[in-house]
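User: Sequence recovery, please. Input:
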């Protein structure tokens, strides 16, 4: 779990740098509920009929997630991009199966 925490911190710093450069705005850090951020993104993504008719998204969180110091808007964008890319990847795999796979 310590490795995961360290990797999350590193990725957060990298993503924060890119978002700051891309948007030219200052990030607003504060204690945030990561579960609430992910749930909101999944709700929005699931509301897209083009996605929800093909893929069902399910969430499974441990009950004791601590608050995390982050910019909630920037993190929401990060999860939106990750989930949308994942959905597109899954859909692409279904359209182009690997040889020998059904």
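Assistant: Recovered sequence (102 residues):
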């Amino acid at each position: 779990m310590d490795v995961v925490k360290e990797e999350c911190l590193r990725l957060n710093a990298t993503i924060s740098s890119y978002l700051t450069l891309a948007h030219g705005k200052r990030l607003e850090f504060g204690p945030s509920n990561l579960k609430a951020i992910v749930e909101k993104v999944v709700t929005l993504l699931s509301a897209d009929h083009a996605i929800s008719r093909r893929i069902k998204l399910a969430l499974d969180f441990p009950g004791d997630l601590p608050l995390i110091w982050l910019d909630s808007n920037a993190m929401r964008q990060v999860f939106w991009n990750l989930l949308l890319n994942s959905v597109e990847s899954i859909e692409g795999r279904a359209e182009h199966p690997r040889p020998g796979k059904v």
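The longest strand covers residues 30-32.
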